[in-house]
Specification:
By secondary structure, the protein is an alpha+beta fold. It folds into two domains: 30 residues; 115 residues, Rieske Iron-sulfur Protein (3-layer Sandwich). It has a five-stranded mixed beta sheet, with no helix packed on it. It has a four-stranded antiparallel beta sheet with strand order 2-3-15-14, with no helix packed on it. Strands 9-10-11-12 form a four-stranded antiparallel beta sheet, with no helix packed on it. The chain starts with a helix and ends with a strand.
């Protein structure tokens, strides 16, 4: 292979790599951060945050992420059923890194700990479950008790 063919081949490989990376990125799950407010001792989220319009059809999300300027980490809010929600703090109990949500599983990008949708340890090195918050639903508002 001469120099010209080598450079041409390398260029095509690089362009192909960029294209594949873009394709994989577009397939990644998008995270939805719900609008919220802090009112007294509660972080409030509207139940409508769990509904998304897909081609004219109302589809329920299974979870949303809730972030506030006043909180150091987001909260993973999972819809168990029509009147029950699970809320867990997205701080890894191993060394305090922020967790990533992947559907009904939370994972730590630092050391690989994994937690289920209720904050229970599935895989270490973390040994403690995530911090849980009490939730209640009133008039279409989900209230997450912060303390």
């Amino acid at each position: 292979m001469d120099r010209k063919d080598f450079i041409k081949s390398c260029g095509m490989i690089c362009a192909g790599g960029v294209g594949i990376a873009a394709l994989l990125q577009s397939c990644a799950t998008s995270q939805y951060f719900a609008s919220s407010e802090i009112s007294g001792n509660y972080l409030t989220v509207r139940e409508t945050e769990f509904t998304v319009d897909k081609n004219g059809l109302a589809v329920d999300r299974r979870y949303v992420l809730v972030r506030s300027e006043k909180l150091n980490f987001p909260i993973y809010l999972y819809k168990v059923n029509a009147q029950e929600y699970s809320a867990v703090w997205m701080e890894c109990t191993h060394q305090g890194a922020e967790l990533s949500a992947h559907g009904e599983q939370l994972s730590c990008p630092a050391h690989g700990s994994e937690f289920d949708k209720f904050g229970h340890v599935v895989q270490g090195p973390a040994q403690s479950n995530l911090r849980k918050f009490k939730t209640l639903v009133e008039d279409g508002i989900i209230k997450i008790q912060l303390s």
